[in-house]
Amino acid sequence: MNFLITGGAGFIGTALANQLVQAGHGVRALDDLSAGDSRGLDPRVVFARGDARDVPKLWGLLRDVDCVYHLAARVSVPESVLYPVEYNAVNVGGAVALMTAMRDAGVRRVILASSGAAYGEQTRQPVSENAVMHPVTPYAVSKLAAEYYMHAIGALAGIETVALRIFNAYGPQQQLPPAHAPVIPRFLQAALNGSSLVIFGDGNQARDFVYIDDIARALCLAATARNVNRACVNIGSGAATTMNQLVDEIETLLATRVHRLYNDEGGAGVSRLVADISLASKLLDWSPRVALRQGLAQILKLDPRFQARSAQSHAATH
Ligand code: NAD
Questions:
Q1: From the CB of 15, is ligand 1 less than 6 Å away?
Q2: CB burial string 218-254: b at 16+ within 10 A, e below
Q3: Which of 23, 82, 238, 266 would staple 277 via disulfide (CB 3.0–4.6 Å)?
């Protein structure tokens, strides 16, 4: 099959593109490199630099494409609170532009990387896809709005649409921006540097961490699955991990103790967000294979930013 991946030079896009070309598919990746880095892409991936809202550019890239993955987005929840106009423009505008270009080009299916964040605070856990949505940040609203636009335009234009609501992704090569870095690489970096590890709130907020290879596999399966049109499907591990438990895991893995600094000035987010993954099993025949401990070990093994230091840390403690 031939695929276009928007946001294809990002963390998830790179893993997906590489997995698809390794399986023998043709892959084009479009990315404006505002956050991504095309150097991680397999040389067989055809890379194009550009904005996912550029409809004429999309027309060219969509030629002979069977299925599109829409991953291009601004992805930081705290940043979205500061810049909601930007988040709306990229995350919602990008989805709408892509759908109109796909309508013109006659592409059959699109898969959106949506987010578990769209659920917001939910009393019933694990959260299933039919929960009433309570998005509470501009990022969460933008992902939900993108889902609605995609399903609506898809239904009108005869395009199959699937939204995968990904929970907390992690794995080797996850971006580590200086502000608002995702929690796992931020904690690993602090633990390996011997600096204090900052935990927002009391550390009892629970999240669902899902490993990058499992996410890429779910995305691959969504391209050919039957009976998924208009579906929203959770992609998570199904397991709850509190921030305190995550630090415990990192301490065990590195055989070291870290200094925990609790910061009560907000930023902890919802108290609990764990995926019910039964629909993914039913519709995609997918279930996660990599448990958190294994996934963390894979990062230390495969991510050059952590490899040398984790070896040193082990040598110092044994
Ligand atoms: P990422 O920032 O690594 O990837 C996003 C990519 O989109 C980047 O390479 C960036 O340069 C690109 N991009 C941004 N604006 C663009 C534009 N206007 N035109 C073209 N490219 C643009 O983030 P990621 O973690 O790989 O996330 C990929 C997708 O998955 C996003 O849509 C995100 O909302 C979704 N998602 C991620 C997670 C997670 O935990 N990482 C969870 C749920 C959903």
A1: no
A2: bbbbbbebeebeebbbbbbbbbbbbbbebbebbeebb
A3: 238
Nearest CA among 49, 29, 73 for reference residue 175:
73
Q: Which of 233, 32, 48, 31 is nearest to 151 (CA)?
A: 233
* Beta strands 109-115 and 197-200, pairing class: unpaired
240-273 pLDDT, tens digit each: 999 999 999 999 999 999 999 999 876 778 899 9
| Mean pLDDT, rounded, for 113-139 | 97
Query: CA 317 to CA 109: how far, in whole Å?
Result: 52
Number of Cβ within 10 Å of residue 123's Cβ equals: 8
**Cβ neighbours of residue 39 closer than 8 Å, sequence gap 6 or more:** none
The answer to whether residue 119 is catalytic is: no
Rounded mean pLDDT of 45-57? 98
Q: Specify whether the CB–CB gap between 60 and 38 falls below 8 A.
A: no
Ligand 1 touching residue 51 (CB < 6 A): yes
Looking at residue 298, its pLDDT comes to: 97
Note the pLDDT of residue 308: 61
Instruction: Report the chain's mean pLDDT, rounded to a whole number.
Output: 95
In CATH, the architecture of 2-170+210-235 is 3-Layer(aba) Sandwich (3.40)
**318: pLDDT strictly greater than 60:** no
Residue span(s) of the chain under CATH 3.90.25.10 come to 183-207+239-273+291-317
Active-site hit among 69, 87, 119, 139: 139
Question: 183-207+239-273+291-317 maps to which CATH number?
Answer: 3.90.25.10
